[in-house]
Amino acid sequence: MTGIHGERAPLRDRLLDAAFQLVETKGWQRLRVAHVAAAAGVSRQSAYNEFGSKDALGEALVVREFQRHLDGLKECLMDHRDDATAAVEDAVLYTFRSAEASPLLASILTSARVGWGAEELVEMFRTRSEPLLPYAVRVVADLVGRYRPDLDRPSVELCVDMVIRVTIGYLVTPDGSHEDSAHRIALMADRVLAPV
User: Fold this and answer.
1) Are 76 and 91 in contact (CB under 8 A)?
2) Per-residue pLDDT of the chain in tens (196 residues, 90 and over written 9)
3) Of 18, 80, 69, 82, residue with least CA distance to 171
4) What is the spatial distance between Cα 136 and Cα 138, in angstroms, rounded to a whole number?
5) CB 182 within 8 A of CB 92
């Protein structure tokens, strides 16, 4: 990166890293921008200059974590670009494991109240101008379309939407092992994408 954004990125990343750690250990409700600034080793004014408010910091944190997850999903899909069923299974399994490792990501994906005070943080995204789910569907469908132009775009979008929603359902209400659940979801996707 160059220019202003390049100079600001390290500060922004430090602040977001600090916010992530504090949210996961102490929750969102008690978090203050001053806490994040202190944990990042910068002045409170620098943190406010970067984000402007606690809500803006929270939105940036959620968007970054969600984007990181989407980047991981893209890697799963690229690893299996010639096998849609294997790509879906790997992406779903990646999601299960990532959500298990990160309460923040689990809360973002499920809007669940996981007991560490992120309800207010997650609630901000129900009324967002671009909700995260349609954004994810579009990003993943674009990627699939780039490498699998043989697949019908409306069917791909329907399949991606279904996979995301069913995966979230399994996160909220687990049924069997992650591997078995990912395999079942991949089989569902295969049926949706199968030629009529």
Assistant:
1) yes
2) 333 334 455 999 999 999 999 988 888 888 899 999 999 999 999 999 999 999 899 889 988 988 999 999 999 989 998 888 999 999 999 999 999 998 888 888 887 544 445 556 666 655 555 677 888 899 999 988 888 888 889 999 999 999 999 999 999 999 999 999 999 999 999 988 876 4
3) 69
4) 5
5) yes
Measured CA angle at 19 (ends 18, 24), to 5 deg? 105
Single pTM value for the model: 0.81
Best CA proximity match to 104, nearest among 112, 96, 40: 112
CA distance linking residue 40 with residue 18, whole number of Å: 6
CA angle 124, 125, 126 (to 5 degrees): 100
**Concatenated DSSP letters for 79-90?**
HTTT-HHHHHHH
Q: Give the torsion through C-alpha atoms of 99, 102, 103, 108, to 10 deg.
A: -60
